[in-house]
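Deviations from the work plan: none for this task. Representative record:
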Amino acid sequence: MIGELGLFALILALVLALAQGTLPLLGAARGDAALMAAGTGGAFGLLFFVALAYGALTLGFVVNDFSLAYVARHSNAMLPLHYRLTAVWGGHEGSLLLWVLILAVWNAAVAVFSRSLPREVLARVLGVLGLLAVGFLAFTLFTSSPFERLLPAPADGHDLNPLLQDPGLIFHPPILYTGYVGFSVAFAFAIAALIGGRLDAAWARWSRPWTAVAWGFLTLGIALGAWWAYYVIGWGGWWFWDPVENASFMPWLLGTALLHSLAVTEKRGSFRSWTVMLAILTFALVLLGTFLVRSGVLTSVHAFAVDPERGVFLLGFMALVVTAALILFAWRAGSVGLGGGFGVVSRESALLVNNVLLTVAGAAVLLGTLYPLLLDTLGLGRISVGPPYFEAIFLPLMLPLLLLLGFGMQLRWKQDDPVEQARCLRGIFLLSLAVGLVWPLLVGTWSLLASIGIFLGLWIISVGVKDLLARLRPRPQCQETRWMRARRLGRSYVGMQFAHAGVGLLVIGVTFVLGYDEERDVRMAVGDTVTVSGYDFRLESLERIRGPNYSGERATVAVFSGERALGTLHPEMRRYASQAMPIAHTALDRGLFRDLYVNLGEPLPDGAWLMRVYVKPYMNWVWTGALFMALGGFLAATDRRYRMPARRARAEEPRP
Amino acid sequence: MKLRFLWPLPLFLALVAALGFGLRLEPGSLPSPLIGREMPAFELAELRDTDRRLASADLVGQPVLFNVWASWCVTCLAEHPVLMELKRAGIPIYGLNYKDSRAEALRFLDRHGDPYRAIGFDADGNVGIDWGVYATPETFVLDRHGVVRFKHTGRLTPELVEETVIPLYRRLEAES
């Protein structure tokens, strides 16, 4: 019964999405207020029925209904309840349902928070979102229903992939999808603006908070994925340039460009058609990523169940959506004004270069991701493009971008004086450079990469701090304290500062991990000690353990820094009842300046173990940096001016 | 409409076309270094009859299918009816029971039917490693000389069997 109820709810959701995708658009074209208002109701109804379907599938997992094929494949009776709840998105069909649910949530959120928009605009935005929901719901229903029955029902299910039985993975997919799907809102606003023929500062202002929130979630989702890979996969790596990672990284790069381009369009009215193009391209990359991950054209560690039918559907959907968007763009973009002019040295120029670099980086990642597939299509053999390509092409693009980041924050709109800016930033530049040259010597041998990393990281952070202090300096003519001035800083400014500081931390962390991590794979018996980067790791004991659905071994490793004991680590090797492969469970001791990482490799015949002992310097700077960036996105989205009623916002439109 | 704003469209359509062709490249037929080579040699205990052995030499003499499976693998269960169908079509299938327990594997065959001529019992997965198995089920097609001619990772679908496996098998049969 539960399954059929869920299926029925999904069908009703599809019907509602069809209504939401057509009626408001029709209403906006005819100026019919009643039809336009249908969008809001449709959005709430859609959310209700998709949530119902999602709840039905979850209930299937909770009560172990193995007559549902999807439940039987991804759960079993021994699986703890919290993993049964998260197993809902452990496979293709369920994760797609989660995807649709998140789309419905964004859709309803637009209906709630954009009430103050002109009703034609809101109607068009909801109409476009409705059409996107139609596509994804049809995909779910026709190719990937999670409610298919398996009769006769097996006595027990398979199991959730043990790699996925981890707290990190509870949050990774929902947050990543929230970011991923969130760009559909920016896309819908862009399409709505193209349909209405109004690409102006007001449009940019409406899109900005949605884009910032989606970007924040995507940042967080990617970081969580890397964090999960770091300690679950067990190689201590955290970014592999895997096609599926790239699938989420490409929209991130373009989304970052979009975020900055929207700022120019809002503040200065420039870059309009480019901004619309970016919104379209970002969402096109979201669709492309979905296609790559779920069609099986690329082989990857993340690959879902392979089914050509799904690939054809997704490819067709992507072709339809993006072609329509691009034709609409070609039709309308010609009539868009150019906005204010700007000089060579100005914030506009800096943001333009930022956009170019980010877009080129996105294109380079796209090329590297698709190159094996294109070669294969042309019959030139199967190859894989690895990290060397991506690193070789990515670093030269990121270095100027990071250098520019410091200058860009300082530059004025329209026109700035390069000589004065150079004088103003000279001190910070030289100081960062000097510290960058020396700091790596304190960690170990000098490395160019780490030096550049420290220099750029410090440069970005200190320019930000300088700018903040300049804004907080009390002015003699008005009676304001620093605190009062601090409270007057806009949230979008504070958000930008947070995100940029996060970039600085991330750069320092990444370059230090790349430059100084030490990895030792050693044979260890009880009582043995190994020294890595000045830390002594002693294997104290080994014991057998038994969990709810696995058994295995646990090691106790004591760590010393010289004579000082730093505590013990407990890496485990688990054998899940349902899986042939044993899964290593890493033990980590996280610290501000280093992570200690111990992983059980494999047992050796004489009772000893092959162990992986790593020291990863500055690893937490990477995570903290990513967290700051995401936080920056969320803060910026809550700026007061985005909440102003549309009428006032229009009145305050800037004059070019 | 201004044509200069239309330039992204052809680029995008070219990409879609390339991806469309990519889709037709049979997802799942991962390149195997074994294709065109003689199969890796093995000798294992037979799953159902512990006194017998199954060796790679037993697979030579006529074209055969070699299917890697396990009772714990739900995809293998989904694939099972297709194997039974192949058996009815008179195609000899040899099995490699991969990292499984004998009792579970026998119960699986009792309950769902047994399409195999003979099954090697590879409890520790060593033969699987030689064959490059990384996910069950996997199916190899061998010609009469024991050369690997085709490999498929994942479930054999009715379409795949109809369009690829059976025609290939008939062709190999006709080869002298």
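Strands of chain B lie at 43-45, 53-55, 64-69, 93-98, 118-122, 138-142, 148-153.
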